[in-house]
Amino acid sequence: MNVLVINCGSSSIKYKFFAMPEGKVLASGSVEKVGESESKSKQKSAAGEIVIEEPISDHSAGLAVIRRMLTDPEKGAIRDVSEIDACGHRVVHGAERYSDSVLIDEGVLEGIRACNDLAPLHNPPNLTGIRAAMELSPGLPQVACFDTAFHQTLPEKAFLYALPHEIYEKYRVRRYGFHGTSHRYVAKQAAEMLGVAPEKADLITCHLGNGCSMAAIKGGHSVDTSMGLTPLEGLVMGTRSGDIDPAIIFYLARKGFSVDDLDAMMNRKSGVLGLSEISNDIRTLCEQADGGNKKADLALDIFAYRVKKYIGSYLAVLNGCHAVVLTGGIGENSTAMRERILSGLDQIGLQFDAEKNQAMVGCGGAISKESSPIKILVVPTDEEVAIARDTYKLVSKEA
Ligand code: AMP
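Above: the input record for the complex with adenosine monophosphate. Below: its predicted structure, written as tokens.
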């Protein structure tokens, strides 16, 4: 079965095309700057690379270009669109409706639409992508895979904010959590690496990329996570503040900042970018810090300190665990950031191995000492293959 996995953003479409159940990547690519005059589409497959520079008016036109690239007679991956057997879509918010991936029908489309106001920047383009894929090949099974689904196992004590209960009842304001597909995928991989049954694995997973979140996983289920109603809460990120005293917002509002100013500030101008006044990119900041830049060094320290605090709190939540797992662009590649986060935790069971850490870049394995009571693992994430697997499972069950 050939599965096309689509991640549709407001102005871009990323995709990967898999042969399942092997999980072999037949092609991958993207369409950038949808709706602009300088759109650029590219694809890589075993047959070669394609680059198309032509205006792409909307997501339907974007998917038509993806079909053209996939079926390109010279450099495509298939001869005809009929060789696509199913589509899997990344959907950011499934609120309390979806605790697993689902086959899409009209009811599901309505369900996703109902979550729009919780993720106004993400769910509408996700829906547009699904609609466009349905138009492209009517009757093709489509599956939605939600970023929030894995965290639907959080107990009330972890997901409720201490606000008047009616705020939850009326507006469904609660912790939802995100990056669920990544946390679920790396937890399963880590359990395999540890030789522990996935349903018995107790883990702290850290997805550290441009967006950052952590999850406490007990017996394979997410029991707490750092992102909340939106992906703003929790860790310090590239441009997002993560946790702050909520009263800072009232204080600044009274100083004249509008809601939109504060939203933009906390989502796009804060995090390590705001602290360093240099960059949101951890690699750049590491270079600057090595060159003696104090602000870059402090931003990196604040980032690492927050992760450390969450590790400590999740160790208490889980009453110990098998492993701390690192993933995402930073978790998988930044030896310097891993060292800042994980050194000095030996008294609470994490014995970091600096030599193994240096060698572990772009691959998976342990970076803790043999004797470490709690292992530290680097596990490259692969959200697309996780979506392809869910799609394969649901569609083959239906067939
Ligand atoms: P992601 O959103 O998962 O693609 O992660 C992006 C983040 O990963 C950025 O902050 C990058 O600086 C960081 N990153 C990617 N590769 C490296 C690397 N080789 N060394 C350090 N940081 C990296």
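Notes for the reader.
The chain has two domains: 2-146, 195-378.
Residues 209-210, 238, 281-283, 328-330, 333-334 surround adenosine monophosphate (CB under 6 Å).
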